[in-house]
Structures are given as structure tokens and as C-alpha cells.
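Exercise 7.
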Amino acid sequence: MVKDEMSLNSYQTFELFYLGNLQDVNLGKTESRDLDVQLIDRVEEAQLEGRLPIFPKKEGAVKVNVSRHGIKVIDFQTKAILQRHPLHAVAQIVYYTDSFAKSNLALKIGQVGRSVFDCHVFQCQTEDQAQMVCQSVRDMFDAITSGVI
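Solution. The predicted structure, written as C-alpha cells, is:
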């Protein structure tokens, strides 16, 4: 979606798989390591420890809406809203390819000024889809800060 095409009611929907949530993630203030790498490391550690699945379950299928209001996660089967995250609470979003060649998204949610966050992890169908979700979030931030919407 191009910024000029965004309207007040615009949103994009993506069909993903929800892997789970890591609570109280503390990335610290290490200047020597990139924040994206630190977040990915925490997710992969949780997967190796069994606190977060590596592969999605069938019932983990969700629709993710990205809009000026934030990110809304909807159960694919029941249409129930599972999560809502206002755009200002999205501290970081990063996609990466795991060691099983799956494209994952890590969505860090938190408050400004805090070093502890929650992290929601999704598995995408393709790397292109993961890039599109990240770009959609960036475009929405840009549109809001530039006054387009």
C-alpha cells in the first residue's frame, strides 16, 4: 500500500499462524548487539526451551489487521478478536527466517521508557508476506506521523 493511497479507514489483512507470546522480555541496554538480533535470540531460546512452539498448530491460524488504530489479531475459524495492540504500543517488529526455513515475525509490544516487553510471534507463509506485514506497519506509522491519515 502506497502512503498516498491510505485513507482514514484503510487497513491491510494478512493470514498468518500465531505461535505464541513471550511475556516480560527484557532486552537490556546492550549497545554491542542489534535490538533485532536480541529479540530473535529470545524467541529462538524460548523455542528451544519448549516455551514457544517451533511449528504452528492448525488452530493457530489467524488474520492480522494493520490499521491506523494498530494491530488486531482475529481467530481465523471463530472470527473472535484475540488481541488488539494500539499502534503506539508497537515497539518493534522484525521478520526472520528460522533454522527450519520458516519466515517468522516477532512483534514487540510495550510502553515507551520501559525495558520489559511482551513479544508475540507469528509464522508467515512466505518471506514476502513477512516483509509485507513489516512494511504495512512502517507505512502506517509514516502516514500517521506525516499527517496523511
